[in-house]
Amino acid sequence: MENEPVALEETQKTDPAMEPRFKVVDWDKDLVDWRKPLLWQVGHLGEKYDEWVHQPVTRPIRLFHSDLIEGLSKTVWYSVPIIWVPLVLYLSWSYYRTFAQGNVRLFTSFTTEYTVAVPKSMFPGLFMLGTFLWSLIEYLIHRFLFHMKPPSDSYYLIMLHFVMHVQHHKAPFDGSRLVFPPVPASLVIGVFYLCMQLILPEAVGGTVFAGGLLGYVLYDMTHYYLHFGSPHKGSYLYSLKAHHVKHHFAHQKSGFGISTKLWDYCFHTLTPEKPHLKTQ
C-alpha cells in the first residue's frame, strides 16, 4: 500500500484495542477507479456503497477534477486555530465590553415590561454554555447527519454523504481531510452565527456563539490528535482514542462523540467494551 502514514505504525505499537484494521485492496479491481476523482464514482455504487465505504484504506483520496476545488476541500490541521482562535478572542472581547455597558436585556423581542437585565458576571457562564452546547451539536451532527444511510438508488445523496464525512471513514489517515477546511467551515459557522443572533440578543447570542466556536476548534484539534497522536496509556485522551478507533474500524454505528464521550453515555451509544475472559 502506498503512502502508509507514520501514525499507523505508532498506533499499532499499542495494545490490540488501538490497532486499526484496513482492507487489502487490489487497486485495479476495486469498485472505483482510484486514478480518477472518487466523488463522481461513488454514486454509482448503489447497494454496494455502504459495504465499500466502511472498508478503510491507507491511501489518500482525491474528490474533485478541479485542482482549485480539490484544494479548497483539504487543509492542514493548524489552519483551524490560526483562523478561528483570533475570531473567538475578538468576539469575546467585543461582547464582554457590551455586557460591561450594562444595557443587555433578555426577552426584549417579546415584551418591554418584563425584560431581564444580563450583568457582565454572566459572560463566563454564557461562554461556557456555548462550549458545552457545541459538544451536543457535535454529537448530533456526527450521529444523525454524517452517519445517515443514504438510499441506495439516490446517486446525489450518496455523493453528498461521501463528501460530508464518510470519505474520512474510507481514508481515515488522510491528514489533509481530518479537519474542516476553512471555506466550507466559514459557510456553516456563518449560519450558526446568524441563528444565534436571531434567537437571542446580540451580546448574549454572540457570547454563546464564541464559546461554541472555541468548542469547535477543540473538537477539530482533538479529532486530529486522536488519529495522529500517541496519548499516554491510561490518560483521558488515550480513552478517547480507543473509543474513536473502535468507531472507525469496528462499530461505525456507535461512538459518535469525538471531544467527549458524555453524549454517548447519555444516549447509550458507547462502543462496546472488550469482554474480559473469566479466570478459573
From TrEMBL:
User: What GO CC annotations are associated with the protein?
Assistant: endoplasmic reticulum membrane
Q: Looking at the keywords, is Lipid biosynthesis present?
A: yes
Chain ranges passing through the membrane: 76-96, 122-141, 178-200, 206-226
**So which cofactors does this thing need?**
Zn(2+)
Q: Where is the Fatty acid hydroxylase domain?
A: 127-269
The protein's matches in InterPro entries, at most eight in alphabetical order, are given as: Fatty_acid_hydroxylase (IPR006694), Scs7 (IPR014430)
Q: Which keywords appear in this protein's UniProt record, sorted alphabetically?
A: Endoplasmic reticulum, Fatty acid biosynthesis, Fatty acid metabolism, Lipid biosynthesis, Lipid metabolism, Membrane, Metal-binding, Oxidoreductase, Transmembrane, Transmembrane helix, Zinc
Principal localization reads endoplasmic reticulum
Spell out the coiled coil positions from the record.
Answer: none
PANTHER family xref list: FATTY ACID 2-HYDROXYLASE, FATTY ACID HYDROXYLASE
Question: Which protein, by its recorded name, is this?
Answer: cDNA, FLJ96578, highly similar to Homo sapiens fatty acid hydroxylase (FAAH), mRNA
Q: Which organism is it from?
A: Homo sapiens (Human)
